[in-house]
Design brief:
Elements: H1 2-17, H2 26-37, H3 39-54, H4 64-88, H5 96-116, H6 123-138, H7 141-162, H8 186-225, H9 235-251, H10 270-275
Helix pairs in contact: 2-4, 2-5, 3-4, 3-8, 4-5, 5-6, 5-7, 6-7, 6-8
Amino acid sequence: MDKVMKMRCMQKLTLQCIPNPMDWRAVDRFILLAALVLLAPVGFGSALLVTDLFAPEHINQTYVPGLLWLYGLHILLLTGMILIATSKRKHSDDWPIFENIIIASYIITVLVSSYLTGSHFSEGLLLIFLGVNITGTLASVNKIRKSYWIVVPVLIAMGITDHMYSLPHAPLLIQPMTTPDGRPLVGWLIVRDIIVAILGFLVYLCILAMKRWTERESLYLEMSTTDGLTRLSNRNFFINRGQEEIARTREQTLPTSPSLSCIMIDLDHFKQINDT
């Protein structure tokens, strides 16, 4: 029993020692965000290379060079900016341009990849909206809102193309991403694993964000209803509770329903108590 209690205490202390990214400076949050976004071009590019090497007959070679260039530029861009931000953080707490590039590059890479592979209604949609939402906790909410106005019309356009037989669906793929015996290709499995890894990091950050929002909401509620000095309920709490009781009494219309009563107590010379 003692060992179990010690393990629980150690786990609690470990969790308390790990800083919440929501408390970091802006530039530090951007570095973390850029590192997470790097998983997309690295994972997608690696999967495309593996598939092109071992199963080139499954993919349209017309799109391979362009996609590899896109992933390569994305990797170089974010890696370079992470290095610059690591140096810049010594004398600056914010870097808005870095934030803009992270958001825009992530959206472009995921939208292009999900359209060419025909997965924009599953992985693409999930990656975009979960990614954009969690970015809102690490970046500017106003920029994320503007991103929605860009992403939604593009996704709608992608959905419309699925119903237009004159336009190709999943133009990157020539054949199903399976072997003759029905097993998924190695490259395609890598893509799925990378997506799971990205979503896992995003969900973890989302949990941290929700935890912090819950803590702040509880703190604000306590500050608005509790006196900081005496830790007693304040006037605002009394008024709110009184309104709730009045409303509850009005709803009880039966003759046997209890009536509402209020008792007020006043202490003489209470100033002396406050002074001492």
